[in-house]
Amino acid sequence: MSLNQLIQWYFRTPIVLRLLATVAFCMIFFGSIVHWIEPDVFPTVFDGVWWAVITGSTVGYGDFVPLTFWGKVIGIFLILAGGGVVTFYMATVSASTVKYEQDLSRGKLEYKGKDHVIIIGWNERTKQLNQMIESYAKNEHVVLIDNSLKEIEYKDHDFHYVRGDATEDETLNKAHIKDARCVIITSDPSKKERQADQTSILATVAAKGLNPNTFIICEILTKEQIPNAKRAGADTVVRSNDFMSTLFFHELYRKAHIKPFDTLVKQLSNQQYKQITVPEKLVGKTFQNCSFEFMKQEELLLGMEQDGELQINPPAQTILKEDAHLIMLSTLRK
């Protein structure tokens, strides 16, 4: 490597590494010089470097002390030059650490991982979803994209925050969309329903365009926009309005009223939906027989997907085929 290439490499290196290299050079330089001047006091180069580090950092153990005139002159230059470099290095490291934490809280840093889940939108639904992930899926890596939060305390949440518009490539790339396992797009509560749906659909198009293989769950508020969300590339469309209306209806007309907090919603929040391929031992058995088997494991069989048709609570005597997928409900376990 030529001198010119070495200089270019030096100035292209991050400032913290440059300062570290400068500190190392100064310590080795002064340590070698003092070893050459006073070999009796500093028998090895390492002893000289040790003295240079201790002196330059102003610790001053006193185990090695230059005795000659020129040795003391080297010590003076070391304190003036090396000490300033070490102090500046420590100050730069401290400032860089503070800036890193600030950028992390403000959503300015790019996510570097993969096989993660991207959640778009910070609202009560995503807050609860993140709490459930933290409690029941501790190994899951989550990246939050939101444009409304100016800052979020990263120490209070186990996710990486990216601030920006989820419909823009720059923001999605900062969230490392190309290696994301799943993207959850929630509706913006600050917008009107139709406008919120259009934004969700646009975010779906952007995410699918950058990563065609990622699984996208999209929340849609109006029934008319469901086909557009599917055409945009959403693998699953969740219409929260339908779900909430159904809950309101059943809560209104159920006969037995129980404790206010012991509601259906609370019960469902402690349950996990699972979809599995029918076990080999249950192929050819009836749906009823299969239900009894899973009851032994404290799991509730809700339905199945067979022959391209989804059936919830199918006839008890329905025979399970080899390609069937079972849908069940089980208690979430931490």
TrEMBL record:
Residues 114-238 form the RCK N-terminal domain. It is a multi-pass membrane protein. It is found in: Cell membrane. The chain crosses the membrane at residues 15-37, 49-66, 73-91. GO terms for cellular component: plasma membrane. Its main location: membrane. InterPro entries: K_chnl_dom, NAD(P)-bd_dom_sf, RCK_N, Trk_Ktr_HKT_K-transport. It holds the Pfam family TrkA_N. Keywords: Ion channel, Ion transport, Membrane, Transmembrane, Transmembrane helix, Transport. GO terms for biological process: monoatomic ion transmembrane transport; potassium ion transport. It comes from the Bacteria. Coiled coil: none annotated. PANTHER family: POTASSIUM CHANNEL PROTEIN 2-RELATED-RELATED, POTASSIUM CHANNEL PROTEIN YUGO-RELATED. This is Potassium channel protein. The lineage of its organism: Bacteria, Bacillati, Bacillota, Bacilli, Bacillales.
